[in-house]
Amino acid sequence: MRPLALLCLLLVVAIPATAQVPGSPLSFGIQGDLTNVNVGGGSMTAIQISTGGIAGIGGNVQDLFGIGYGGGIHVDLNAGLLSLRLQGDYITLSPDNTKLQNTIAAIVNNAAFASRFSVSGGKINIYSATLNAKLTILPLPFFQPYVTGGVGLASLSTTEATIALDGNPVYKLQPIQSQTKTAVNAGAGVDLKFGGVTLYGEVRLNFVFTDPKTTAQIPVAIVGLTF
């Protein structure tokens, strides 16, 4: 499945929501995402360094990555305390030089040598579409905490990463193969209602059943507006 196709369905559903009539059960919103991602791409194989300094540096692919960020849109079908949310998101993340150097330093016990390494490329894009149930557990007029959970699809695409020593490429790897897989999530949040606009904050645990290992987003912090 093409990554953008996951969001096209959401956009089609969202069109009537942007032109609501009084009393409509549909609402439309936007959100921003920040998340820590454990990429399920397996392990790095040995890095062979032609200068002869070290031959055989390994590690976990997930240790290369920093924080992912992005955003998306959502459409809510409101039915009192229980509502349904169809949500589309885009997350991007890239390898982090500091994480790479820390991984190598722990293996070779030489921080100075590890600092000579750098990584470029290896960017991962995650497109997702999920359908969540949302249950309000304290329906106060202004402050409404809730729990949520659901299932969807996530499409991951990536570019090849290059690890360099003193600027000279010594190793290439594909952090994870491009793939579209089922995703599940669970979390909690709070709605702050200001008339016809709702500001919300939410924390989720999200798992994408990628090969060869599950990719985990722990946690996903979301801040959004619903109109």
The helix-and-strand class reads mainly beta
Round the mean pLDDT to the nearest integer and report it: 88
SSE succession: HEEEEEHHEEEEEEEE
**Terminal-residue CA separation:** 30 Å
Rg estimate, integer Å: 21 Å
Instruction: Classify the beta-strand content into a percent band.
Output: over 45%
Helical amount among residues, as a percent range?
Answer: 10-25%
Seen as an oligomer or otherwise, the chain set is single chain
Count of helix runs: 3
Going across the major beta sheet, what is the strand order? 1-4-5-7-8-11-12-13
The biggest sheet, with number of strands, parallel, antiparallel or mixed sense and barrel status, is: 8 strands, antiparallel, barrel
List unreliable stretches of 5+ residues: none
Morphology call: elongated
Number of strands: 13
Annotate the secondary structure layout.
Elements: H1 5-17, E1 26-38, E2 43-48, E3 55-60, E4 67-79, E5 82-93, H2 97-108, H3 111-114, E6 117-121, E7 124-136, E8 143-158, E9 161-165, E10 168-173, E11 179-194, E12 197-208, E13 215-226
Antiparallel strand pairs: 1-4, 1-13, 2-3, 4-5, 5-7, 6-9, 7-8, 8-11, 9-10, 11-12, 12-13
Give a structural overview:
With 227 residues, the protein is mainly beta. The chain is built from three helices and 13 strands; from the N terminus they run H-E-E-E-E-E-H-H-E-E-E-E-E-E-E-E. The protein has helices spanning 5-17, 97-108, 111-114, and strands at residues 26-38, 43-48, 55-60, 67-79, 82-93, 117-121, 124-136, 143-158, 161-165, 168-173, 179-194, 197-208, 215-226. An eight-stranded antiparallel beta barrel has the order 1-4-5-7-8-11-12-13. A three-stranded antiparallel beta sheet has the order 6-9-10, covered by helices on one side. The radius of gyration is 21 Å and the shape is elongated. The relative contact order is 0.20. The model has no long low-confidence stretch (mean pLDDT 88).
